[in-house]
Design goal:
Layout (H helix, E strand, L loop, with lengths): L1 H19 L1 H6 L5 E3 L5 E7 L4 H16 L3 E7 L5 H13 L5 H10 L6 H10 L4 H7 L3 H16 L7 E4 L2 E3 L8 H9 L1
Amino acid sequence: DYAKQMEAAEAKDRDQRAAAIIGALEDNPGSPFIGHPQADVTIVEFFDYACPYCKAVEPRLTALVQRDKGVKLVLKEFPILTKQSMIASRMALAAVKQGKYAPFHLAMMRHLGPLEVSDIEQMAKASGLDVARLKRDMYAPEVTDEIIANFNQARAIRAFQTPAFIVRGHILSSESASINFPAEVAAARK
């Protein structure tokens, strides 16, 4: 059927686009990751801290990374939903300088309800971050560069919503709730 053929052609085009920039997607030094630096499978996720689907899938990804020492989750800050999303992403990337990206990222991903600036600052403090330094560092050129790079990469692979996942140059196109990440990792290893 024509619609299915078009969908398949579109998916193939997006995969080719992802494969063309896979190095920048998987190994950009500005992109934080959770998991194992020497992993044999990398999952790239474009996400927004205000995205309920991103938050819903986070515990499954965290569990996978903890269980499978061969997986690395590269986190592409993609703040497209709210004004607070941009503040959260900037602060999260600034947290890298203090070596506390992961706990701060997880705190924001696990926060229920809308994300207010006061919530973001409280979670930063609870994650052991120096908030005054964070507020200075969040406007550093490398933070801005990472966000711009992520927007450009998202555009390049035609990812216009969150979450978006890439495994070995393949864009996972099903709804995030129905993605079987362990099966995707196993397929990538074959």
